[in-house]
Design a protein that fits this description.
11 helices; five-stranded mixed sheet; Glyco_trans_2-like; 2 domains; Glycosyltransf_2; 40% helix; four-stranded mixed sheet; glycosyltransferase activity; alpha/beta; transferase; Glycosyl transferase family 2; Spore Coat Polysaccharide Biosynthesis Protein SpsA, Chain A
Length: 307
């Protein structure tokens, strides 16, 4: 089978200290058939100096630079994905501060082709400090990647995602609706939409990149941002994120499988019930997190009115 051309979507904002290493790791990919699309969200550091120098040093590479909407990371990725050139394309998301393993793209393509060809790929990451010293590794999830999980947990890390044309076409078709609802995270939207529509997720147990943990990460790893995550839950920010996701998914319900439409509307009904110890257990309607502790936390949040 002919090797596909991959459009790498890299969104930047004030990534000057780290972006050069990411650009060099993209250049070092064993899968060399790619176009690099960079959407800069109004950086005021030297990010564009690095990008411009990289493009000038590699005139043989197809590197496209566009201006982002200036409305945050999720909106930047979604606006880039909405470009008509990407409607039916192989797409890989990239963050500005990671470093890819040399075979990241090649491994993703091979694993997608070994399956049905209509799957989305993600992989584990090696957590590092700002200087790329390893400090941990992302979880190797044991429960299924499914719609019931996606409703309450974002585990499809956007910086690892690679998508074949069928998946990209589905996602681009949903963009007008989800942009109106202001979904909080592009990778969470991807996870919910693709599983809701019945696509499978390949989660590679082998890490595909070095994932820096530093003060500018939006959330980062569970361990390095545990206090921030707890505050998000207690301030009901998480519940507000779920609100926005559910509104978007309700608009998109025609693309969901019949079973997943049932899960969605059962979940909406469950959230509307008064907070009490007697509420239906979320897992009984097909909603779950990736651990027993996570399931228990869902029940506790429901009793506290935080979900």
């Amino acid at each position: 089978m002919e090797s596909p051309h991959i459009h790498i979507l890299l969104c930047t904002k004030n990534g000057g200290p780290y972006i050069q290493a990411q650009l060099e790791s993209i250049l070092a990919q064993t899968h060399q058939d790619w176009t690099l699309w960079i959407s800069d969200d109004r950086s005021d550091d030297d990010t564009l100096v690095h990008v411009g120098g990289f493009a000038a040093d590699h005139p043989d590479r197809d590197i496209q630079l566009v201006t982002g909407p200036g409305q945050g990371c999720a909106r930047n990725f979604m606006s880039l994905l909405s470009r008509p050139e990407l409607t039916r394309a192989w797409v890989a998301f990239a963050d500005q501060d990671d470093v890819w393993m040399p075979d990241k793209l090649a491994r993703a393509v091979n694993m997608i082709w070994r399956g049905t060809g209509a799957q989305i790929y993600a992989c584990r990451s090696i957590f590092t400090d700002a200087a790329l010293n390893p400090i941990g590794i992302s979880p190797d999830y044991q429960r299924p990647f499914g719609f019931g999980n996606a409703l309450v947990q974002n585990i499809l890390r956007g910086n690892t995602i690679v998508m074949p044309p069928d998946v990209t076409e589905l996602l681009t078709s949903t963009l007008p609706l989800v942009l109106n609802e202001g979904v909080p995270f592009h990778d969470w939207w991807v996870y919910q939409t693709v599983t809701g529509a019945g696509f499978d997720v390949i989660h590679d147990a082998r890490p595909g990149l070095l994932y820096r943990q530093h003060d500018n990460n939006l959330l980062g790893s569970n361990r390095s941002h545990a206090g921030q995550r707890a505050a998000i839950v207690l301030r009901r920010v998480f519940a507000e994120w779920v609100d926005r996701n559910v509104r978007a998914l309700s608009d998109l319900s025609p693309i969901l499988t019949r079973q997943n439409r049932r899960v969605l509307f059962d979940f909406i009904d469950w959230r509307a019930q008064p907070a009490s110890d007697g509420r239906v257990v979320p897992k009984s309607i097909g909603v779950y997190r990736q651990s027993l502790g996570g399931d228990l936390a869902l029940r506790a949040l429901a009793r506290l009115g935080k979900l």
